[in-house]
Structures are given as structure tokens and as C-alpha cells.
Design a protein that fits this description.
The complex is a heterodimer of chains A (167) and B (496).
Chain A: H1 3-28, E1 32-33, E2 39-40, H2 44-66, H3 80-103, H4 105-120, H5 125-149, H6 160-164
Antiparallel strand pairs in A: 1-2
Chain B: H1 2-11, H2 14-32, H3 38-45, H4 54-79, H5 90-99, H6 103-138, H7 141-157, H8 163-178, E1 180-181, E2 188-189, H9 203-220, H10 239-261, H11 267-281, H12 294-309, H13 311-317, H14 323-334, H15 341-346, H16 348-369, H17 373-379, H18 384-403, H19 406-424, H20 430-452, H21 459-462, H22 464-482, H23 484-491
Antiparallel strand pairs in B: 1-2
Helix pairs in contact in B: 1-16, 2-4, 2-16, 3-4, 3-9, 3-14, 4-5, 4-6, 4-12, 4-14, 4-16, 5-6, 5-12, 6-10, 6-12, 6-13, 6-16, 7-20, 7-22, 8-20, 9-18, 9-19, 10-11, 10-12, 11-12, 14-20, 18-19
The chains are: A mainly alpha (167), B mainly alpha (496).
Amino acid sequence: MSMKRINQFFGCILLTFFLFMGYTARTTLTYWTEGSVIGPGSGYFPFWICVILSGLTIYWLIQVTIRPGEKIPKDFIPPRHEGLLVLAIFMDMILFIAIVDYIGFPVAMFIFLMVMVVALGERTLRHTIYYGIFSVVVTTFFVVVFGRWLEVAFPKTGIGILKTLGL
Amino acid sequence: MQEILNGFSVALTAGNLFYCFLGCLWGTMVGILPGIGPLAGTAILIPLTFKLDPTGAIIMLAAIYYGSQYGGTITTILMGVPGEASSAITMIDGYQMAKEGRGGVALTGAALGSFIGGTFATLCLMLLAKPLVKLALKLGPPEYFALMIVGLAMATGLAGKSMVKALIMTVFGGLLALIGMDPMLGTPRLTFGSVHLLEGMELLSVVMGLFGISEMLLSLEEKARPMIKTKLRELIPTRQDVQDSVKPIVRGTLIGTVLGIIPGLIPPVSSFLSYAIERRSSKHPEKFGHGALEGVVGPETANNGHASAAMIPLLTLGIPTNPVMAVILGAFIINGLAPGPLLFEQNPAMVWGIIASCYIGNIMLVILNLPLIPVWVQILRIPHAYLMTLIMAFMMVGSYSANNSIFDVGLTIFFGFLGYIFKKMDFPLAPVALTFILAPMIEKSLYRSLVMSQGDISILYTRPISGSLLVLALITLIYFSTQKKVQVVRSTGVDA
């Protein structure tokens, strides 16, 4: 696959999104208000912004289509190991938001930190112990500074045993 | 004079000195650490400011910004890895000097130049504040609208390699900002029934996702370079070095201060221009690229002058000139304040306190950056796994704490993914952040203009000031898309 194809594919996704947003703005929102105040309605600016975005995207698509095809840059696709790391970190973040409401902030944050630091660091028993200590210290820092001092209401666990432990 | 003395009495209180120091410290760290730029670095600390007094909060956030310009030099010179975009041009000669054993001199020259550039720009802020405030009070909604469009045109013109892509990103930022409640009519728009989106997208989530998480993920794909060791005694420049640095510092100061005031320009523009001017005015242009001190001192002075001068339009007109200033504007708004001419009337102690703190911050940064270079270098020895994990966790918790909402954390991850894809596709991200924050102000000005003219759009171009500004914006876009020299600056992929 050449860079031209990737650009065309990406441009089509953008164009579809902008057209959809523009259509939604035009059909579901008020375009112009009449009555006591005459002026733009809530759909006026979104509609015109989507029109401009769609026009620009079409222009870009034409540009990439008529230009000679380029090779895919070397750093466009990450090497296998780095690519897996990026994926692992994304999954770790998604795991955090998926479990934090059920198991509470301290445990979810500990798991998030532990998974990430293990994924990025060396995997030996000695290092894993260091990572465990690091995760506990950082989680405690967040609970104390954000939870107590800044009074951020972190999600609390609904699981009995964790509740008993004050987590 | 009385105002600035009052400002110093505010800035020199123990609390504000501490916040200024904390901002300088974190800013230097943000500059040093590759993968986290000043934009995400500033946004990360916004949640910590919720409990602070607004003056201390803004002092700290401003210090992070100009502090990051100092810190970026250290990794640029010693490792050949720019800590942030403004230092990218410094790398050409700075890293070369370090390889020749003159890294210490390069660091000293850069720090002293940065101090002079930053201090001069703060002096200009002090002198220009009152006249600009008087001017701002005379501007109506059409003029404000046009002024912000000029800023966006400048930002777009210099962002990324392709003008079309930059334009798409600029307008896309506006679309994101429109999601939520219509501020004029109070009706939801483009929320698709989600109650979480009624208040609009959280600024911290957008900024931390686009600039923080995406950059961290991209940095995973890069290989670390070894560091060049520098001893403290190597920091002292020779008489010849001092002589070579004087003119680049003067020119860099002027370039940074003037360009910093212009809406839409980011510090890398000043440092790139300064480098080009130094090379052209040098008697030995062949030295550039092989360790010319002028190629380090000029750009570093310019980017620090720029960072401090960027406070001028923010404080006086309420208009952010670049994405980091836009985030600081967001911090003002979060704290219930609106920067601009009225703030000088309603809260002079705060405004002059912030201005005075810029002088103090610049002094702190020279102290932090010269004798403590070996300490900063140690930070880079902390294993990457710990640093990255800590910063990612800060971003997750920071985005949650803005509204105590897991939805916002999800949004941060989503924008992290989006930023990663956009970066891969070579779309510049800086215009998105700038428009995202400016869009509500642009919309309000446009709405008021249209109400004033009963729907007649010609009000924007028939009034002399707004008409001239809109023509300027158009010329800017045409100029930037056709000039080869500008394309060279843009081809480096300068972003926030």
C-alpha cells in the first residue's frame, strides 16, 4: 500500500465525518432565529464550519490524488515491539476506565501503574518488586494530594472486601 | 511605576514566590523531558491550581511556560534531542559544540541570552500594558473577531508542512469547541443526547490527549541517544565567546519580543528566524552547522523573549497568541477571571503581580539552569519506564479531577489516539488547541456583530479596523502558502 492510498482512505473518513456532522447540524438544529432577537441559531456556525471542513478535505483529497505517489515514510509504521507497546498502553488506559467504577480508584490506579511500568521496563523479579513499590507510592500520592488535599471525589469500590480495607 | 511596585509586593509574598519557583522547576523539567511539551506540561498542573489563589495559580502556569523554554536547551545541547519545538534549531550547533567539548559554554550562553530576552520582553509588557488596555477598550465585537482571525491565520500559516492540512486542523478545533450548549440560545448542539457533552468538551482532556498522551506514545517509537558529559568548570565562557554572543543576544531579544506580541506566532518561529538572521549576518557563515555559538545564543534568546512577550496580548487584550497562552487563558476562566482590559481595572494587584513575577521567574531560572545543570541531567538517568508511567498517570488523574468524571478520562484517551493518528498522518495539532479555546470568543464576537447589524455580514469588512485586519489575515494565508522561505520553516514540522 502506498502513502497515496493511506491519505485517500484517511481523507474519506474525515470527509464522511464532516458531512455527517454538517447534515446533523442542518437537520436537527435551528439555523436562524426570528422573533425578539434576530440572529444565527444554534445550527448556523456548526453547519458552516462543516461546509468549510468538507470543502478543505475535498481539496486535500484532490491534491493527494493528482500528486505522484510517495513511499510510506520509515517511521510511519512502528517496529513490532514498539507497536505492541503502544497497543499495550492504550489497552491499559482503557482497562483503567473500565474497572475504576467497580474496584475503586486506589486499586484501579495501582493496576494501571503496575501494568504500564512492567510493559515499559525490565521484567525481572527484582524490578517487579521495585515497580510494585513505585505503584504503591504513586497511588498513595494521588489519594493524598488529589483525594484529600484537592478534595477530588475519586470513585469508591462497591466490592465488600475492598470496602473493608478502606479502598 | 506605583503599579509595578505594588505588583512586586504581590509577587514577593512567600506563597507566590513558592508558586513561581514550583512553576520554574516544573517548566525546566518539562523542557528537559522529551515527549512532554510546554502545552501538556502546563495543562497537567491546572488541576493543582483549583485550590490555589488565582494569582498564585497564573504565576505558576506562566512560569512553567517560560521555564520550559530554558529547560529544553539542556537535552538539545547535551543529547541532540530537542526537549521542546523551540529548541529544535539550537540542536544544529549546540549538539555539535557539545561533541567538541564546548557544551558548557553553549549552555551558559543560552541561559544568559534567555534571561536577557525574557527580562526585556517583561519590561515591554510593563510599558505596553497601559496603552494597549486603552486601545482594547475602543474595540468592538467586529474588531475582536477580526483580530482573532488574524491570530488563527498566522498560526495556520506556520503550522505543519501543508497549508490545507493546517487549515483543516484550525477549523476542526472550532467544530470541537461548538459541541455542547449554545452560549447564546442555551440549547444543546451536536451532543447526540449525551449529558456529559452538555458542558462541552473539557479543555484539559483535549489538550492532554492531543499533546500529552499522543506525544508520549510517539516517543515510545524513538530510540534514546547517549548523553554527552559536561563538567561545571566548562560552563565559563571565554572573552571571545562573550564578544560573539553580544550581538546575537540583542537581535534575538528584539526578534522574540516583537514576534511574541503578534497573535498566532509560536516561539519556534522566533528561534528559526533568529538562526536565519545570525547565519546571514555572520562573517563566518560556514561555521554554522559546525558548532557556532551565535547559532545557539540567538535562537535561545529569541524563544525566551517570545515566551514572555506572549503575555502582552493575553493580559491586555485577552487574546492568546499561541496554544500555551490559550491554556493559560483557560486557567483564568476556570478561576472565574477574564483577562483583558477590564482585569487591569478590576484586579490590578493580580495583573501587576503576574508581570512582576516574570522578572523574578527569569532570575530563578538562571539560578536553576546554570549551576544546577548536573542535577537536571540526573533526571534523564531515571528509567524511562518510571517517568513515562508517572506522566501518563498524572494526565489521567488530571483530566478526571477537572469535573470528577470518568467520561473526561475516556475523552483524554480518545484525543490521545486521535492525536497519535493525526501526527502519523502529518497533520499539525497546534492550531486545534488554539481554535478550540478561541472559538467560543470568536463565536460570541461574530454573534454580537451579526445582532448589531441585524444579520448583515458586511459589518465585518466595512468597518475600517476589522476590514483591514481581515484583509491582513487573507494576505497572511496567501503569503505563507506561497513563500518558499516560510515553507522551509514549516517543513521542519514545527508544532506547539
